[in-house]
Amino acid sequence: QLQLVESGGALVQPGGSLRLSCAASGFTLDHYTIGWFRQAPGKEREGVSCISVSGLRTNYADSVKGRFTISRDNAENTVYLQMNSLKPEDTAVYYCAARQYYYCSGFPYEYNYWGQGTQVTVSS
Asked: pLDDT tens digit string along 20-73?
């Protein structure tokens, strides 16, 4: 089976932090570019961050630059999204996705494998 499973979503207060994890099973992530996307109620899915196969290139949406950090641990077959200084507008379902290519993409249709999502709610 080829699966991605997100975890780490929670209810957190503004200014707080969360670390999301994306664990792969059935395949090895070290051949895949990994992206994080999010979708808020009534809005389209948007790219948040991505990391290249090598891990040497990362991209971030302008709305999260300086607050979010993507990383990968190929030995653990897991990709992480560290989220700091969270804001209410970060509230969304967060998805990880994988595509078998070297470079980042912010377009959902270019990704082959998707997790089921994890809910992040930022509220006081």
From this structure: 999 999 888 888 999 999 999 999 999 999 999 888 899 999 999 999 999 999
CB 33 within 8 A of CB 74: no
Taking CA atoms, 69 is separated from 42, 48, 51, 119, in Å, by 26, 10, 10, 18
In Å, what is the CA distance from 17 to each residue of 8, 12, 51?
Answer: 11, 7, 20
pLDDT band for position 17 (cuts 50, 70, 90):
very high
Angle at 98 between CA 92 and CA 99, to 5 degrees: 135
Q: Which residue has the tokens 């992480």?
A: 80
Amino acid at 18: L
Mean confidence (pLDDT) of the chain: 94
Q: What is the DSSP string of 18-69?
A: EEEEEEEESS-GGGSEEEEEEE-TTS--EEEEEE-SSSS-EEE-TTTTTTEE
Nearest to 91, CA basis, from 41, 47, 46: 41
